[in-house]
Write a structure and sequence with these properties.
Shape: globular
Helix content: 10-25%
Radius of gyration: 19 Å
Number of strands: 9
Structural class: alpha+beta
Largest sheet: 5 strands, mixed
Strand order of the largest sheet: 5-6-8-7-9
């Protein structure tokens, strides 16, 4: 559960009979007014994202334009064999191209993908962590979706500190447990601050 300034908790609830895990309510329902909103929510988000660059162009151009040792590239590409759900599409060649450009960039890399044999093989030169989340698109109650969080650095120091994935939703939405399932034989890693 998340807490807004002033102590208001964001909780699962129904809106017009539909279950919602997020915030679909008015400022008045939160006990806020227009003066609270910009400072309580937008300012906090702006400070947190102050040095974040979000681009809307070909991933290869974006990664190459911001390629430094101090950059963390987070990529959430269309999942393998689910590309038809995305527009303008993502080809098999794009999956290979993404891997290749991430392999060559200088900084930290974090990629989220669906957990399948193709992605495990393609990213065999990276660290792979497995986790499960509720599959909201499935018509089957309780269906889960298996995902990978892929890094070019050894995630074990982070996992030792906190093995739960940070999330905004209730525990039944995501199990959150990150499990290291693959360590590369010849890592292309960078050392994380504070690690050996």
């Amino acid at each position: 559960k998340s807490t807004l300034p002033g102590g208001k908790k964001i909780e699962k609830g129904k809106l017009r009979g539909i279950l919602s895990n997020g915030m679909l309510c008015s400022l008045k329902e939160l006990g806020l007014d227009e003066r609270d909103f910009p400072y309580g929510v937008i300012t906090a988000a702006a400070l947190r994202l102050e040095r974040v660059v979000i681009t809307n162009r070909d991933f290869e151009d974006s990664i190459k334009a911001h390629n430094s040792e101090n950059t963390l590239h987070y990529c959430d590409p269309p999942y393998f064999e689910a590309e038809k759900m995305y527009s303008p599409g993502f080809s098999l060649e794009d999956h290979y191209r993404l891997h290749n450009v991430l392999r060559e960039c200088k900084g930290y890399r974090v990629i989220s993908y669906n957990d399948c044999p193709f992605i495990r093989e393609l990213y065999g030169d990276f660290y792979l962590m497995h986790f499960e989340r509720q599959n909201c698109m499935s018509q089957t109650e309780g269906a889960v979706y298996e995902e990978l969080l892929i890094t070019n650095y050894d995630p074990r120091p982070m996992l030792a500190q906190n093995t739960e994935q940070f999330n905004m939703f209730e525990p039944d939405m995501e199990s959150g447990r990150l499990i290291l399932v693959h360590e590369p034989h010849d890592p292309i890693c960078v050392a994380m601050s504070g690690s050996k």
